[in-house]
Amino acid sequence: MDIEDLRTFVEVADAGGVSPAARRLGVSKSIVSRRLFRLEAELGVQLLARTTRGSALTEAGVTFRDHAARVCAEIDVARETILPAGDLRGRLRIAAPLTFGPTLLAPVFAELARRHPLLHVHASYNDRFVDIVGDGFDCAVRVGYLGDSNLMARRVGPIHGALVASPDYVREHGAPETPDELLTHQALMQGTETWQFIDGEKTISIHPQGRFKADNGTALAVAAVAGIGIAWLPHCLVEDHLASGALVPVMTHYPPPTAGLFVVRPPGQHPARKVRVLTELLIEHFG
Question: Residue 278 belongs to what domain range?
């Protein structure tokens, strides 16, 4: 029984069909279909019920999926155990934020690939929080303040931020001095988030309001430069605007707490060595 056939079946089962599984694996749909046909022929059972609308697991497929996933995981552990020290192979799928992933994280991913020529590094950039398990990622790099989750997280570095606005906005609307005053201003947000600020020994939480929202930090920085409102953004996104005077810091007596850069992975006692190596490399760059 071919291990690649098993891996392909698990991807199809988790992705919900041949087409999304082919995209995850980076191969054609015909290759995925051929591997599935070969596996079903060897087992003598139908694992997928194929219709014009797609495919779904049969009862046998549901049962076999868990066994196949465990076999693939054990093979990965065995391969890592016998590899020469430092060598990595296989595939590492990483979910990363679009806002600054291509500029700050991409060089780290490229360095990982350079150090380990047998490792296939697949990075996907998106500012939404992907379902790591459901979407088939080995890990994700996330920024901010992580809430409760069944995922395992490792902090790899700090992320410092600032509250900023354009000089035109400040001239027209004034600058808030306290978190309560901030509630009367237009906030530039990704959704309905909570903003936090440090006041001596305590942390103040507020729920800002605003008419402009975007799921990308760079877009919020552009809106702040245009004078639409006040934004809380990482320094790496606004440092050039602050240097040029296009943005100015506001409410500096109540700084936001330092956020974090995290590697999160599916629950399990021991992370795969390729995830550990990526984590160590990120700590080397950002810690």
Answer: 90-158+262-286
Q: Which of 37, 38, 43 is nearest to 60 (CA)?
A: 43
Which residues is 260 bridged to in the sheet? 144, 158
Pairing status of strand 152-159 against strand 259-265: antiparallel
3-state helix, strand, coil in the chain (%, to 5): 40, 25, 35
pTM equals 0.71
Contact yes or no for 142/115 (Cβ under 8 A): no
Handedness of CA 12, 18, 20, 21 (dihedral sign): positive
Pairing between β-strand 187-189 and β-strand 212-213 as defined by DSSP bridges: parallel
The enclosing domain of 211 has a CATH number of 3.40.190.290
Report helix, strand or coil for 231.
Answer: strand
The answer to whether 136 touches 267, Cβ cutoff 8 Å, is: no
* Closest C-alpha to 164, from 220, 243, 224: 224
pLDDT band at 269 (very low <50, low <70, confident <90, very high): low
**Confidence at 240, pLDDT banded by 50, 70, 90:** very high
Backbone angles phi, psi at 67, to 5 degrees: -65, -45
Are 220 and 193 spatial neighbours (Cβ–Cβ below 8 Å)? no
Rounded CA-CA distance 108/113 in Å is 9
- 146 and 178 within one domain: no
pLDDT at 52: 65
List CB contacts of 15: < 8 A, sequence separation 6 or more.
Answer: 21, 23, 24, 135, 136
Q: Which one of 33, 52, 82 terminates a domain?
A: 82
Nearest residue to 276 via CA among 62, 51, 119: 119
